[in-house]
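So, can you check what follows?
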Amino acid sequence: MCAQNLTRYPYPSGRRVVMGKRGAIATSQPLAALAGMEMLWQGGNAVDAALATAIALTVVEPTSNGIGSDAFALVWDGKLHGLNASGRSAQALTLEHFAGMEHVPQHDWLSVTVPGAVSAWRSLWERWGRLPFEQLFTPAIRYAEEGYPVSPETALAWKQAEKTYLPLQGEAFQAFKEVFFLGDRAPAAGEVWHSPAHAETLRTIAQSGGDSFYTGALAEKIAAFAAATGGLLTQADFAIHRADWVEPIATDYRGTTVWEIPPNGQGIAALMALNLLEGFDLSRYPRESTEVYHWQIEAMKLAFADAHRYVADAGTMTLPPTALLSRDYARERRSLIRHTALPLAEPGLPKGGTVYLAASDGELMVSFIQSNYMGFGSGILVPGTGIALHNRATGFTLEAGHPNQIAPNKRPFHTIIPGFLTRDGQPLGPFGVMGAAMQPQGHLQVVVNLVDYGMNPQAALDAPRWQFIRDNLVLLEPTVSPAIATALVDRGHTIRQGSFFGRGQMILSTNGVLVAASEPRADGLALAW
């Protein structure tokens, strides 16, 4: 990786890196970042800080995550550890529940699997936490009880959600609308919003060490509400949930090792794309050039074709990650990338709404992500609890014979992916870019900015982005040069302007200095001391 220039900012975001030696936090909402910093100032470590940040985000950015989220994490303590806290589908689920449907419905109990975020908080704290578990909840409970001013980007997302969630009818959605759309509207930026029920639920989780959510009173409430409103999840489904420690997967990209969580997440798509891209000498061309955009888009297109065909619950995948990450396979697939766009990327066959945060204290480094998926998620909230449930089961397919076909007690294809970088066995640090299918594409682009163009973390996050959608359709940020857009059209891409390109955070360690960044596409804040 090229040496970072900490004084060069080629893109006009107005932000600069934040640096310190003792600790750093970066996330998409300033009050949540402050919650993490509180833990560091109180003698906590990076895991304590990350968890306080994550818990606070369920209150201050409910448009993207909540107590009913799933979560994943990568933690460095001298070695990199992975945690998969995504939940499984109901044991009572059958294919007959989807008769006549082409897709899993987005706003329905059928879209809800057991939420795993609480199990992630408990698992990480048990292994590395220094402060009492209850202490990690203090800022979030304070925000929920006393209220907080809704931040600008969160307010925009909340407003946009009105057209999705206000029309939902039925008892299952009533409590959700009463909590998040009081008076049939979203709160405006700067308006103080609070949720006493949310505070009480967090207090119950804190006092029980998370047990209440899976085997106690909260699990009972969720299961009872499901039974009363057409859901399949039961107390038994919650009781058998476990977060799993997993071995991270990685690829080497020009001397920098990029790490991801293994499937059922889509992080492997970023690694496959990097393997394809390594065969092109990007550094010979300016970062803002047609060649650099075209090669990245085509590599991502091919990687997605494979990911959408093969990635599923680890227990039902027909190919192991090692096959998809094979260098021989990458060479074979790379030969498909030509001067013009592939009209349709097909999978090959190898032979043989989300919040992200980064935290570091110089010894522990944490890459953590949790999400309700499509904005607020399913639109189902358990009355009196503030628990808004995700809609992660929409990550399943109903296609017969597909490894990701929906089935009972199964994890779906997951979009949320924490990332981590190392070099020569030493940690560089955590990074992530939120935003559904944008996530591996964001990882790819950020890594290229860092490795091929020597950008510092802030510049790497600021740089204009593209997003591959399907077939030949690619969205470009308005800041991408019109000349590049025209040249991509000439190469066979269908180009449109877009408005959502993810929201990223990063903390890298350089000679004992923590360099933190939070991009301008969100309300985020990076703090260091």
The chain has 17 helices and 21 strands. The first strand starts at residue 18 and ends at 20. Residues 290-310 form the longest helix (21 residues). The chain has a mean pLDDT of 96.
